[in-house]
Design goal:
The protein is an alpha/beta fold. It is 36% helix and 26% strand. The chain has a single domain, classed as STAS domain (Transcription Regulator spoIIAA, 2-Layer Sandwich).
């Protein structure tokens, strides 16, 4: 995984998705190049995250590999209340025009119920996620202290 935070709490590498739990409570997901993500991939990653703490909440940074795609069922699930068990906010990091079009389509037409924004800059995405975390922590002051349970 490239460009991750120095203080990693935990990490997981799967066939099509890799992710790290950063000390700032960002789960940074990286989708492999040419991967097509299905609900099987999502369910496998959810089992890992549940193992880290079934009551934990995270800020999600999604970074798609070149020529990767996401199944329609995954997009519908991601926008639904069911997905929000572990989610405070989602930042989608895009690298090209095609990814930007797909990400913007998701935000506009799937209308996710949690704060979701598309970025071309990783640092801007992380800054925005940290702002969302600050807002969340005002009502949940122990959030920054969550650990693997």
């Amino acid at each position: 995984m490239e460009n991750y935070h120095d203080n990693i709490v935990n990490k997981c590498v799967m066939e099509r998705i890799s992710f790290v739990w950063r000390s700032d409570n960002i789960l940074h997901y990286q989708v492999s190049e040419d991967a097509h993500i299905t609900m099987d991939d999502i369910n496998a990653s959810l089992e890992v995250v549940k193992g880290w703490g079934k009551d934990n909440k995270y800020l999600h940074l999604f970074q798609a590999g070149h020529n990767s795609s996401v199944d329609n069922e995954v997009r519908e699930w991601a926008a639904s209340p069911d997905q929000n068990q572990f989610t405070i906010a989602d930042a989608i990091l895009v690298r090209d025009r095609a990814q930007r079009l797909i990400a913007n389509f998701y935000v506009r037409f799937n209308n996710p119920i949690k704060p979701t924004k598309v970025f071309t800059s990783q640092s801007e995405a992380i800054n925005w996620l940290n702002e969302q975390g600050s807002i969340y922590s005002k009502a949940n002051p122990n959030w920054h202290k969550q650990t693997i349970k």
